[in-house]
Specification:
GO terms for molecular function: 5-oxoprolinase (ATP-hydrolyzing) activity. By secondary structure, the chain is an alpha/beta fold. It has 17 helices and 35 strands. Among the domains are: about 120 residues, Nucleotidyltransferase, domain 5; about 150 residues, Rossmann fold; about 120 residues, Dna Ligase, domain 1 (2-Layer Sandwich); about 70 residues, no CATH class. The strands form eight sheets. The chain has a ten-stranded mixed sheet, sandwiched between helices. Strands 13, 14, 15, 20, 23, 24, 31, 34 and 35 form a nine-stranded mixed sheet that branches.
């Protein structure tokens, strides 16, 4: 029987899901094993095989594909554990990466940080100046060669970088997005001198206008590419040696996959791979439940993540920012804060309780894990409050130490604030809910939407324990906790259910609308590029759909809006139709009457995204129905739990998820124990088990 596997390697846990395409889905959750994360991956696959009652070799030999999301790229960038990179730029333009387009002090900063001008600082440069070298060449805005490439100079520069011991070279020449011939020749000359050198070209990685962002993207791709290669290729060999016949696919930031052997070439597109899995899983679940507008919320061990699905499709962004440097790579727009189950609680110099962004991560983990951690976390607070059982996590395989949790909270939070341990624990719990709720409001409202039009999906190891709290004042109609066979491995389910997604883009700044022949030419070129990319994948597709868009802006503005382009043949009316879509979207975000066509409209970048279905059904199965709404048959125990600072500790029924059936209703306060997570149903909230085994929360 064929299988599809999804594997999500997070900062604290590695989640895995296997589906046989016939309605059976099993999941596994194991601790992540840094720095050798492949050990945790193999352990998760072994657990999947045990759940299925077969050997690892048998499972892998029958696996059509493995879709893998990894934090390797983003962690490497954030922690600075990257390859030593050299840069080759056009003479006179090396310093673009250091000048930072006058944005360096503010990129990626909150409004509060931007207003605090005395504390603004540029980040440390991506590479030292002695590794940023220049060559003579010049191509103009139209792609015409004005000054030929000085090949002898390229050879000299390449030798200098090789002698400096760089592991990779980024090439970013002026106007190369219009004509990449000089960059391609530079790569050939580098490989004459250093055949095995990792070389990345801006014309291939980021063919967009704006030199600073294009250069930073190219450098960061070179920084993480070699590391991703040293992780993925051995993992792929190990899987093949254990019997894997299908391909290893890697999740990309834009919500699709790419083969593992090609992923290192486009390493920067995998930066948000783990972030995207939950949104893709939300799309698949929404298709089954009939929801069009969804807010996905994922509370893992390290972070809280929120994404939007509008009219059945994820909200996209043309790029992202890491360490105050822009990345030109299309991505599912995911809002994130460091506020997961392992977020560290502390008291600052002003006597304020802080939660995150630092995390206990997998090692040493929360204090209650007993692995040497001494600082309190969200997880420690939930244990003290009775939300978590001392039996522990992972079905009891991860016991929890109440004494260690209480001591950590007492020393670092309770005594500094003059509180009891219990008061400090509920304060930590409520700060987590408040931080998450604030992020959700910003994510939805700033995108121009009304939260009342949305349903929230809450998953991740800690999401079900907090979702009723952080959604309480949001105004959403209901909160769905995806349980069933995927429980807290929901992002891994999203990986297994994902498609292959590739994108291609080109920049051609001009006034808009342009002649329909220009549109036809640009999109024909992009679609041909995508077809070549799809042909290089090692999987079979059952269908391919294309989505066209163009980034538009009013003249004199500095940001663009990605605007959908009609599917039909281009006509003399197509440009006007695109303009109307742009103005509708602009006014929805900025307010009625905010548009001003008289200023003129400019097109900047054209883009096509190809989505290729893998043809493997990974739908959640239905569960048996209950005889009535009373969940008494699933009652596990009653324990003292504090879910509200106003109510304190109260006797609370705890239900065994395995015995809940479709139609059962839980009236809060209540707790649902799941092997890999726990669901909190506070007072004033009702939980109903739906046909797929999800717990649907509604406010009374």
């Amino acid at each position: 029987m064929p299988y599809a596997l999804g594997i999500d390697v997070g900062g604290t846990f590695t989640d895995a899901v296997a589906s046989d395409g016939a309605g059976r889905i099993v999941s596994a959750k194991t601790p992540t094993t840094p720095p050798n994360r492949e050990a945790g991956v193999m352990r998760a696959i072994e657990d999947l095989a045990d759940e299925l009652g077969i050997g690892v070799g048998e499972l892998l030999s029958q696996t059509d594909y493995i879709a893998h999301g990894t934090t390797a790229s983003i962690n490497a960038l954030v922690q600075g554990q990257v390859a030593d990179v050299g840069l080759i730029a056009t003479k006179g333009h090396r310093d673009a990466i250091y000048i930072m387009n006058a944005e360096g002090r503010t990129l990626g900063r909150s409004a509060h940080e931007i207003q605090d001008t005395l504390r603004q600082r540029k980040p440390a440069p991506l590479i030292p100046k002695y590794r940023a070298l220049e060559v003579t060449e010049r191509i103009d805005y139209a792609g015409t060669v004005l000054v030929p490439l000085d090949e002898d100079e390229v050879r000299q520069v390449a030798r200098t970088l090789v002698e400096q011991g760089v592991e990779a070279i980024a090439v970013c020449l002026l106007w190369s997005f219009k004509n990449g011939a000089h960059e391609q020749r530079v790569r050939e000359l580098i490989h004459e001198i250093a055949p095995g050198m990792y070389v990345t070209l801006s014309s291939e990685v980021s063919p967009r206008i704006r030199e600073f962002a294009r250069t930073s993207t190219t450098i960061m791709n070179a920084q993480v590419g070699p590391r991703l290669r040293t992780y993925l290729l051995p993992l792929q060999r190990q899987l093949e040696e254990r019997g894997l016949k299908g391909p290893l696919l890697v999740m990309r930031s834009e919500g699709g996959t790419i083969t593992a052997d090609r992923a290192p070439e486009h390493a920067i597109t995998t930066v948000g791979s783990v972030l995207s899995g939950g949104v893709v899983g939300g799309m698949r679940l929404a298709e089954q439940l009939g929801h069009r507008n969804v807010i996905t919320t994922d509370v893992g061990g390290t972070t809280f993540l929120a994404g939007l699905i509008v009219d059945g499709e994820p909200v996209m962004a043309p790029g992202s920012i890491v360490n105050q440097f822009p990345i030109n790579a299309a991505t599912i727009r995911v809002h994130t804060i460091g506020s997961g189950g392992g977020a560290l609680a502390s008291v600052d110099e002003g006597g304020n309780l802080r939660l995150g962004p630092q995390s206990a991560e997998a090692v040493p983990g929360p204090a209650c894990y007993g692995n040497g951690g001494t600082r309190p976390t969200n997880t420690d607070a939930n244990l003290v409050l009775g939300i978590l059982s001392e039996r522990g996590l992972l079905g009891g395989r991860k016991p929890l130490r109440m004494d260690l949790a209480r001591e950590a909270i007492r020393e670092h939070v309770a005594e500094p604030l003059g509180l009891t341990v219990e008061e400090a624990a509920i304060a930590i719990h409520e700060v987590q809910n408040a931080q998450a709720g604030d992020l959700l409001r910003r994510a939805v409202v700033q995108a121009g939407h009304d939260p009342r039009d949305f349903v929230v999906y809450a998953f991740g190891g800690a999401g079900p324990a907090h979702c009723a709290g952080y959604c309480q004042d949001l105004g959403v109609s209901e909160v769905v906790v995806p349980l069933g066979p995927v429980a807290s491995a929901f992002s891994a389910y999203g990986l297994a259910a994902s498609d292959v997604v590739l994108s291609a883009e080109l920049s051609d700044p001009s006034s808009f609308p342009v002649h329909h022949a220009v549109l036809e030419s640009h999109f024909a070129r992009l679609e041909a590029d995508l077809q070549r990319g799809l042909d290089q994948q090692k999987v079979k597709f059952h269908d391919v759909t294309l989505q066209r868009e163009v980034d538009l802006r009013y003249s004199m503005q500095v940001t663009e809006l990605a605007t959908a382009v009609p599917d039909a043949l281009f006509t003399e009316h197509t440009g006007e139709e695109i303009l109307e879509r742009f103005e509708t979207q602009y006014e929805r975000i900025n307010g009625s009457g905010a548009g001003y066509r008289e200023a003129g409209v400019q097109a900047i970048t054209y883009r096509v995204r190809a989505k290729a279905g893998l043809g493997f059904p990974v739908a959640l199965p239905e569960i048996p129905a209950a005889d009535g709404p009373d969940p008494a048959e699933a009652l596990l125990e009653e324990r003292s739990v504090c879910l509200d600072s106003r109510l304190g500790f109260v006797p609370t029924p705890v239900y065994d998820y395995a015995r809940l059936r479709a139609g059962h209703e839980l009236v809060g306060p209540a707790v649902v124990d799941v092997p890999t997570t726990v669901v909190v149903v506070p007072a004033g909230v009702t939980g109903r088990v739906d046909r797929l085994g999800n717990l649907v929360l509604s406010y009374q």
